[in-house]
Amino acid sequence: MSDYFSAILSEINSGVITTNGSDKVAYLNRAAEQMLAVNAEHVLGQHYSEALPGLGTLIAPLIETVRHGGRPALEKQVELDLPGKGHAVMRLRIKPLMGESHSPPGIAIIIDDLTEYYRLQQQARQTRETLERYLPPQVVSQLLAHPENVQLGGVRQEVTILFADIRNFVSFGERVEPEFQVEVLNRHLTVAAEAVLAEDGTIDKFMGDCMMSIFNAPLPQPDHPLRAVRAALRIQRAVAELHTRVPPEERLHFGIGITTGHAVVGNIGSTTHHTYTAIGDIVNLAYVLQAHARPGQVLIGVTTYERVKEHVCVRELGPIQLKGHSQPDLVFEVTSLRDGS
Question: What CATH number is associated with residue 111?
């Protein structure tokens, strides 16, 4: 019967260790050997504190509590460093064994190794934190819950593209050290990124002193043109507030261009290196619009204007010949939101 139970215990995933009334290891199954990196032949008959390096000192007070404290069982999660294996997280269940009434009972120690579980949890947290640098938290939650919403390759869909570029950054860089240039740049890009994320936009990429953002992808946003315009105005307000806290020589301004239309959106690139982005003429047009914008201006194309005109105040700039376009484009400058928008 003893051999029968030993055979069963040797096959289970949990580590099982038993001690006798003298606290010497009486049994140790294969799972416990692997978890603790010990050999049963070498530890049987030894006091558990010597036989189980890294674990023995942790379980001593727990064993005493179970044996003398009237506790029928005790469960505890511990972290320890194991020789040859490194840091580990384990759940221990300690129970007294039936013994002679005049002698101390033996102890059963059941071990579950949670190290891999916690490693995967940490990896998941890091993945989420990385995604949240580019996407709003609620978008990340939906993507992780429904990853099928993002298709590999590219799909054609309507999006709104926002480009925000810092004006005169090159000339600013000529006057300061590179480290300080990066510090000022990051300060301005941070407030711009926060403004986009506040409107649930997707930060596509940073290109030096320029930021590209996408609305209506990867998740649908029926009001994506208005979200982009609100984000642009948020950027300008955030920059103005930032400038109240920094000296004049550190005050930089964004020129912003916004367009709405169809583009191919998805994972674009090679099989070994790709990025989630949008490709199409409206992307190019948004970039050209921001290049045309003066410091502090928000310029939108006619399609975006038609979708937001009830919500914004604009100044029509008329048909403008934009670089790369054969015909002039009708361009509007957004000055503010209407009340309630």
Answer: 3.30.450.20
- Is 140 within a domain? no
Residues in the chain, how many?
341
pLDDT at residue number 67: 79
More confident residue, 324 or 48: 48
In a domain, 128, yes or no: no
Residue 138 counted as domain residue: no
In a domain, 135, yes or no: no
The model's pLDDT over 115-124, given as tens digits with 9 standing for 90+, comes to 898 888 888 8
| In the chain, % of residues over pLDDT 70 | 89
Whole-prediction pTM: 0.67
Question: Does residue 21 sit in the same domain as residue 76?
Answer: yes
Asked if residue 167 lies in contact with residue 255, where contact means CB atoms within 8 angstroms, the answer is yes
Decide: helix, strand or coil at residue 159: strand
Output phi, psi for 148, to 5 deg. -70, -15
Three-state DSSP state, 93: strand
- Overall number of domains in the chain: 2
Buried-exposed string 154-191: b where 16+ CB fall within 10 A, e elsewhere: beeebbbbbbbbbbebeebbeeeeeeebeebbeebbeb
Q: Are 59 and 92 in contact (CB under 8 A)?
A: yes
- For residue 218, say if its preceding peptide bond is cis, omega within 30 degrees of 0: yes
For residue 258, give the nearest of 190, 157, 165 by alpha carbon: 165
Q: What is the residue range of 79's domain?
A: 2-119
Q: Give Cα 297 distance to the centre of its chain.
A: 32
- CATH code, domain carrying 295: 3.30.70.1230
Say which residues have a Cβ less than 8 Å from residue 151's Cβ, sequence separation at least 6. 266
Cα–Cα nearest to 44, from 17, 63, 67: 17
CA distance 313 to 315: 7
Grouping H, G, I as helix, E, B as strand and the rest as coil, residue 270 is coil
C-alpha dihedral over 335, 207, 186, 285, to 10 degrees? 0
